[in-house]
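Technical annex B. To support the medicinal chemistry partners, we prepared a structural model of the target in complex with OKP, based solely on the information shown next.
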Amino acid sequence: MKVVHSDAHRRHEPAHEVQAGEVIGLYEVPARAEAIRAVLAADATFHLVDPETHGRAPIDAVHDPDLVRYLEHAWTDWVADGGPTTAIPDTFRHPGLRAGMGAGRPPVTGLGRLGYWSFDTATPMVEGTYGAARAAVDVALTATDLVLGGEPAAYALCRPPGHHAPRGAFGGYCFFNNVAVAAQHARHAGAARVAVLDVDYHHGNGTQQIFYERPDVAFVSLHADPDRAYPYVTGFADETGTGAGRGTTRNLLLPAGCDDVTYLGLLDAALEHVDRSAPDLVLVSLGVDTYGDDPIGDLSLTGAVYGPAGAAIGSLGRPTVVVQEGGYHLPTVGANVRSFLRGLMATPIRPAPPSAPG
Ligand code: OKP
Ligand code: ZN
């Protein structure tokens, strides 16, 4: 299996994040991606390849172009405003602030703009962040091209992750929604129907928001109940899509302490939704923060769950792009991803239909 990877992620290394009002060390560290890469590089089953540059157009097709343009200049704005070496906002565009008064005008200072486009304090930015975020999108797009070109499956070692970024905001360690940009790119390249299966511990609120009205892109997510877990305000079972996208979104909730057997049963239920959407291409948002020892998760999964989980997804028999999201337990993150990918490869997958201009 081909593994798409870029070194650009290394320059996204903020000094800290703010969680529940406290300055804490970073969870979303470069060592995560380095650990995954080292484990896969040592296994002859996997072949590392560089991403190809796809430019800004595929990102603008999914995100508010004003957000994309903001992020491009965010660091320069921040420095011009006298900001310190790690940028974290302090004032957010809460809808209640201007309720009944119209949209107003976007702020002009670096600090003001940061809170205008961000939705949390956990997503610090540094000088290398934008380059890393752009490279992560290229990694996802290149893996998608490989599968559209006939590879049965490919793995995008994205960092920073993407699934929390909606169309017009960033947060949750995410800047651009890598998997959503890849899904839209696949549609554009001729895949008639695409499904995103999100198995990160956290709800992929950004991906859900981007495709909520879309009949052609299904979103199925298996995650910790938002009544106890980030992002708290999305990911409930009664969110099933709207308008033309009615019924194309599915959320399945995991209880605290969820074990391997319970998990694999719920994954099967999620896979039924994926299969029913009859996708030409499946994109998996893979987070191994479902692991029992993950520092920000609360499930009880063991390392033995990831092979069968990958195999269950592989048994759909559909071309599959795996896009990395979370997973913060550095000693096991590489092994768990490897187990998942090897499980996925255990079942033969038929190649994608030849792509037609969309
Ligand atoms: C990104 B991904 C919990 C705070 C959580 C942000 C988590 C982002 C997770 N007390 N802060 O889905 O792994
Ligand atoms: Zn997560």
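Notes passed to the chemistry partners:
The pocket of zinc ion (ligand 2) is lined by residues 200-202, 287, 289, 325-326 (CB under 6 Å).
DSSP finds ten helices and ten strands in the chain.
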